[in-house]
Amino acid sequence: MRFVETWIPATLVATRDLSPGIREFLILPDQFDGTAYPVGSHINVSVAIAGQPETRSYSLVGEASSQGFKIAVRRAEDSRGGSRYMWQLAAGARLDITRPASLVAVDWERDNYCLIAGGIGITPIVGAAQALARRGANVTLHYAVRSRADAAYLDELADMLGDRLVVHASDEGGRLDLDALFASLPKGTLTLFCGPMRMLDAARHAWIGAGHPLSDLRYETFGSSGTLPTEAFRVRLKDSDVELEIPRERSMLDVLNASGFEVISDCKRGECGLCAIDVVAVEGEIDHRDVFFSEHQKHSNAKICTCVSRARGTITVDTLLRADAV
Ligand code: FES
Q1: Distance, CA 310 to ligand 1 centroid (Å)?
Q2: Which domain of life is it from (predicted)?
Q3: Residues of the chain scoring pLDDT < 70
């Protein structure tokens, strides 16, 4: 699927704190018709990080509403700058955003649905829960959080789902056992997942282990979540003396392009694989943050999705294109 990025001007109408670390933003495009968007849709928001324009992608919360687009942003301790930028905005701020787009296909004809959210991964799941509850579908939502105080939209979800909302709060010892959960699901259940990368890896293993087809596990993750902390790393260009520093607040894709080593891209969310380039050597460790490559491909470290993946130490890559100046 090709992502068409049409930027439209919009205004931040209101903010609302959902928990100490999660803030909701209501954004109204200048020209807004309230057209419905598919479950799992996201918008891109143009943010400024260290004076540079960058793009951040946020899931839309809930089904379409006449009020505008709702997103919720967690204030991330190891933020690359996007959440910091969003959190300093006040009502009335002007923004550039893209129109909603969705990568998650939901078929509505299943007998059973399972929704799983980890932390801020609840954002795209709220709309799915709304749509399924409205259809009277057999759906259960498992919401894994550190504590109920950290959770967003608990009251709304409880109203919608009643006892089909199961909160797994780790400070109450309520760890989500994905193996047991997936083993208990009837065959043909469609599961929608959104959570951090580590949880997604566990979900994929458990899903396959329980004998369900991988195509019945639909997922989203956040481009910024990895297994290593977000920190600066170095990229060496094969057959050249060029070595670039990738600061913690910028992506490898941005730095390569800004340095004249053109890398094509599309989704910038680690989903389409278009920005992948060859890895020639790794002195340190790669933190694959995409959902494009398989576990096996990630393990081989032969390629890296430059839009979201990061590293510790220095990696040598081959973009196949050479900067004009080199
Ligand atoms: S641009 Fe789509 S995975 Fe990087």
Answers
A1: 13
A2: Bacteria
A3: 1-5, 78-79, 222-225, 320-326
Å from CA of 309 to ligand 1 middle? 10
On whether both 124 and 213 belong to a single domain, the answer is yes
Last residue of a domain, one of 68, 102, 136: 102
How far is residue 114's CA from residue 184's CA, in Å, rounded to a whole number? 11
Same domain, 191 and 283: no
Backbone angles phi, psi at 322, to 5 degrees: -110, 140
162 and 246 both lie in a single domain = no
Pocket test for ligand 1, best of 224, 266, 289, 309 (most atoms within 8 A of CB): 266
* Residue 62 CA, ligand 1 centroid: distance in Å: 25
Q: In angstroms, what is the span from residue 272 Cα to ligand 1's centroid? A: 5
pLDDT (tens digit per residue) in 239-298: 888 999 999 888 999 999 999 998 999 888 888 899 999 999 999 999 999 888 988 899
Tell me, using a 6 A CB cutoff, whether residue 287 lines ligand 1.
Answer: no
Asked if residue 128 is part of any domain, the answer here is yes
Start-end of H helices in the chain: 82-87, 122-134, 154-161, 178-184, 197-209, 252-258, 295-300
User: What pLDDT score does 78 carry?
Assistant: 65
**Helical residues (DSSP H) of 71-177, grouped into ranges:** 82-87, 122-134, 154-161
* Cβ of 193 less than 6 Å from ligand 1: no
Nearest atom (ligand 1) to Cα of 267: 2
Distance 319 CA to ligand 1 centre (A): 14
Cβ of 247 below 6 Å from ligand 1: no
Does residue 179 belong to any structural domain of this protein?
A: yes
How far apart are the C-alpha atoms of 171 and 151, rounded to whole Å?
Answer: 12
Residue 89 structure tokens: 């905005």
The CATH number that applies at residue 267 is 3.10.20.30
Identify the domain containing residue 122 by its residue range.
112-220
**227: in domain:** no
191, 220, 249 - which closes a domain: 220
